[in-house]
């Protein structure tokens, strides 16, 4: 079994936000292992529907974790803004992040 990740402290995300995201990703990891098993065991054409259903569920879960990350980032970074100009700079960085990855 792999060693647990060392979670560092910083200003990117709070400890609770990191914990929540890591837990969600661990569940997705389990879903993907299940998909791999379904693919390995697929014997009939109808088995592909179960694989597709589980892949769609994993994709939706990963999309939801992406939204959770962005939400946490907005909250954490906007709360840390020193003044209005800093808040605008944070908003600009977050908008660029959304434009790039969403």
From TrEMBL:
InterPro entries: Metal_Tscrpt_repr, Metal_Tscrpt_repr_sf. This is Metal-sensitive transcriptional regulator. Belongs to the FrmR/RcnR family. Pfam families: Trns_repr_metal. It comes from Massilia jejuensis.
